[in-house]
Amino acid sequence: MSRKAKRTEGGTTSNALLGLLSMGPMSGYDIRALIGRSIGYFWSESYGQIYPGLKRLAAAGLVEKKTERQKGRPDRHVYSLTAAGRMRLKEWLKLPVTSEPPRNELLLKLFFGGHVPHSVSREHVTEFLEEHEQALKTYAAIAKDLRKDADGAEVPFYLMTLSLGKHGSDASVKWARETLKKLDELEKHKGGRR
Amino acid sequence: MSRKAKRTEGGTTSNALLGLLSMGPMSGYDIRALIGRSIGYFWSESYGQIYPGLKRLAAAGLVEKKTERQKGRPDRHVYSLTAAGRMRLKEWLKLPVTSEPPRNELLLKLFFGGHVPHSVSREHVTEFLEEHEQALKTYAAIAKDLRKDADGAEVPFYLMTLSLGKHGSDASVKWARETLKKLDELEKHKGGRR
DNA sequence: GGGTGCATGTAATGGGTTACATGATTCT
DNA sequence: AGAATCATGTAACCCATTACATGCACCC
């Protein structure tokens, strides 16, 4: 009974935290802020995950906690990776990506679009279009920033992730425009239907 | 004390169930199977959601249950939409799409790709590529099927949802190939890094 | 005086998957 | 003989968001 038990710390969230801490020592608050400026467009964590997560990681010896006293403000709890934590991160990075079941509410609503006026589907698609147009602007801005301080060895990786966002949003915009046209045509040709 | 309370039945799952039942009366088992042949590529539900979900919907008067006795096999519980259920579905369809926080594990791993050999990232991207190539084949097959019996008024909507899948997978394939090239270049030019 | 930012955390609640439990029939 | 399909459902567990609770400092 002890195959490779090692009841330690699973969960993608923990590993995301390790990854973020690999960029430097940080508090939970810092982590949230860093997410916003870096991986926010493809990953998110709430405080309700971050604080308990850090605690668990500390208990497992994967991160180390140091308390910085401050005047006025509450103490800062700054966490940093331990050697074990860095190893754990690498191991996890090597594991195959676990894909989760798809859930796309826009498509679900569009699929059943026959039950409602076409204008409803139009609106959903339009909003989707606008979101992705906005996203494209954001990506462009981030890419610009990245190329500015394009020194680090990690930058190419950051650009690759950005690029998937861009490809995806480009495709989404294209699809949305086509779909709006199709909806308009449906509207015109709606001959003998109730 | 009674603004617009109406504590009834929220949750996207319930509404997905209503949508599926709008295609005809069905049992929980049938629903699972239907998902596989229709919206499976952008939506999924497990039995653990379906059976309790149907029960709640029945309690709320949105669906009606009829039991079909069978020999040998367990009874079939066939559910069908009530008028109230159909109304509820339409209302929900009109509501704006609620987008959920993004979580893309592939990008997360790629983002931190600097910590591991490039071959690791290569493998992740390759698997992603293959998944989407496979998906494209599936989409093509479904589209063919759909155009075969292209009578119903709903078919255009089915094709629109399919089309987003196609656009998305096309983009993903394109990105994956580009990214593999970049990874190879990184590998070649890895001059003065530890 | 009021909003925003700094900074921590917990509790309630919701949503979901997976594994378990059961068992006959039909196909290979 | 064994696998797949039909058919239902529950229980344990995990993961995650949101709301709550607290409170000072700084800027307008």
Structure explained in plain terms:
Two copies of one chain form a homodimer. The first copy, chain A, is elongated. The first copy, chain A, has helices spanning 12-21, 28-37, 47-59, 83-94, 105-111, 118-148, 155-188, and strands at residues 63-68, 76-81. In chain A, strands 1-2 form a two-stranded antiparallel ribbon. The longest helix of chain A has 34 residues, at 155-188. Chain A contains seven helices and two strands. Chain A has 194 residues and is mostly helical. At the A-B interface, helix 1, helix 4, helix 5, helix 6 and helix 7 of A face helix 1, helix 4, helix 5, helix 6 and helix 7 of B. The first copy, chain A, binds a DNA duplex (28 and 28 nucleotides) through residues 10-13, 27-29, 45-49, 51-52, 55, 70-77, 101.
* Largest sheet: number of strands, sense, barrel closure of chain A: 2 strands, antiparallel
- The count of β-strands of chain A is 2
Q: How far apart lie the N and C ends of chain A?
A: 67 Å
| Helical residues, percent of chain A | 55-70%
Note the run of SSEs of chain A as H and E.
HHHEEHHHH
The chain-level mean pLDDT of chain A equals: 91
- Uncertain runs of chain A with pLDDT below 50, 5 residues or more? 1-7
Shape of chain A: elongated
Neighbour order of strands in the largest sheet of chain A: 1-2
Structural class of chain A: mainly alpha
Largest interface: A-B, 65 and 65 residues
Number of helices of chain A: 7
What's the multimeric state?
Answer: homodimer
Radius of gyration of chain A: 23 Å
Strand portion of chain A: 5-15%
